[in-house]
Amino acid sequence: MSLAQTNVKPSKCGGYMKALVLIDIQNDYFPGGRMELVGSEQAGLHAGRLLASFRAKKAPVFHVQHVSMHSGATFFLPNTNGVNLHASVLPLEGEVVVTKHYPNAFRETMLLRQLRELSIDTLFFSGMMTHMCVDTAVRAAFDLGFTCLVAHDACATRDLVFGDKTVSADNVQAAYMASLNWIFAKVETTKTLCGTL
């Protein structure tokens, strides 16, 4: 969708041009989905609150939706309910939906061009999975020159296994947020970030 066909308008707050990027908040990550995450429902609620704050300010919102195209994919499959954006963050008419096929939301998508068209320089992030697509998108955005803020309680992940060790979702979440904080992004609660709008 072209930005000319949307209601997206630049929004300036606190001296910067900001936008919200919601990463892969899709049904397969929620209870009953093919890849349920730990804490996805609570993270979805927080993401919805952040989204509501951006809408109230009429600030730009970008929904990123992953569609799995590679052989062997087990979730986010085309033409399934699991690939659909979750009810907690359903787009309104005029909000941009960016379809991606890789962890990096900027790879082979129109996201960067659309952000540049609006002169956006600051991105607020929420999404799933923290250790995969959220981390990748934030680091890519930083490399592209954006100031990044992440709502850590509006993100969710899962337990990971490495060798004979299982790393709990809580520890995965803490490690990835700790690694993003300061250099790549400012990591805060949803409440704190909403208060900056």
What does this structure look like?
This protein is an alpha/beta fold. It has a single domain (12-194), classed as Isochorismatase-like (Rossmann fold, 3-Layer(aba) Sandwich), CATH 3.40.50.850. Helices cover 28% and strands 24% of the residues. The chain contains five helices and nine strands. It has helices at residues 40-56, 111-117, 130-143, 169-180, 190-194, and strands spanning 12-13, 16-23, 61-66, 96-100, 122-128, 147-156, 160-162, 165-167, 186-188. Strands 1, 2, 3, 4, 5, 6 and 9 form a seven-stranded mixed β-sheet that branches. A two-stranded antiparallel sheet has the order 7-8. α3 (130-143) links the parallel β5 and β6 (147-156). α3 (130-143) packs parallel to α4 (169-180). It is globular and about 45 Å long. Residues 1-7 have low confidence and may be disordered.
What is the CATH homologous superfamily assignment? Isochorismatase-like
Supply the number of helical segments: 5
Helix content: 25-40%
CATH class: Alpha Beta
| Global structural class | alpha/beta
- Remind me, CATH topology? Rossmann fold
Number of domains: 1
Structure summary, number of beta strands? 9
CATH architecture: 3-Layer(aba) Sandwich
Instruction: Tell me the distance between the termini.
Output: 26 Å
Instruction: Name the helix and strand elements from N-terminus to C-terminus, one letter apiece.
Output: EEHEEHEHEEEHEH
What is the arithmetic mean of pLDDT? 93
Which sheet architecture does the biggest sheet show? Answer: 7 strands, mixed
- Which word captures the global form? globular
**Binned strand content:** 15-25%
Low-confidence stretches: 1-7
Rg over CA atoms, rounded to whole Å, is: 16 Å
